[in-house]
């Protein structure tokens, strides 16, 4: 089944459960950071990173990240495609960010989400 073209009304409960089982939520200083397992790799919802760091426009900020370090993933039942970044994308963004808390978020994610 094509995850991006399916009609939500046609999903079975098992398919809905499979979508939600891929998502894990973490807490970074009171901000919810969602992680998604996809294609054998862990991805973080980029909008969550931006919100935690105080950025207003995640779409604009995502242009700083290389194409191979980000992707769009389906994370819900509302035809929701979101930009997600992998570990390398998060590291690149943290290094390029002007926010002091960005490196703190990167180190936290390395231990909590990516377990490195």
**CATH topology term:** Mlu1-box Binding Protein, DNA-binding Domain
Q: Give me the strand/helix succession.
A: HEEEHHEEHH
The strand count comes to 5
Question: Can you summarize the main beta sheet?
Answer: 5 strands, antiparallel
Uncertain ranges: none
Sum up the overall morphology in one term. Answer: globular
Give the neighbour order of strands across the main sheet. Answer: 1-2-3-5-4
| Fraction of helical residues | 25-40%
Number of helices: 5
How much β-strand is present in the residues? 25-35%
By secondary-structure content and strand pairing, the structural class works out as alpha+beta
Tell me the number of structural domains: 1
Tell me what you see in this structure.
There is one protein chain. This protein has five helices and five strands. The chain has 116 residues and is α+β, with helices and mostly antiparallel strands. The protein has a single domain (8-112), classed as Mlu1-box Binding Protein, DNA-binding Domain (Roll). α4 runs antiparallel to α5 (101-112). It is globular. The termini are far apart. The model has no long low-confidence stretch (mean pLDDT 87).
Record the SSE blueprint.
Layout: H1 13-21, E1 23-28, E2 31-38, E3 41-45, H2 46-53, H3 58-61, E4 70-74, E5 81-85, H4 87-96, H5 101-112
Antiparallel strand pairs: 1-2, 2-3, 3-5, 4-5
Helix pairs in contact: 4-5
């Amino acid at each position: 089944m094509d995850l991006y073209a399916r009609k939500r009304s046609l999903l079975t409960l098992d398919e809905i459960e499979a979508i939600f089982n891929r998502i894990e939520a973490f807490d970074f200083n009171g901000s919810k950071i969602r992680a998604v397992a996809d294609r054998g790799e862990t991805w973080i919802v980029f909008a969550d990173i931006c919100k935690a760091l105080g950025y207003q426009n995640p779409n604009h900020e995502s242009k700083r990240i290389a194409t191979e370090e980000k992707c769009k993933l389906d994370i819900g039942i509302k035809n929701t495609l979101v930009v997600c970044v992998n570990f390398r994308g998060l590291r690149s963004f943290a290094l390029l960010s002007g926010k002091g808390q960005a490196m703190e978020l990167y180190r936290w994610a390395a231990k909590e989400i990516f377990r490195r």
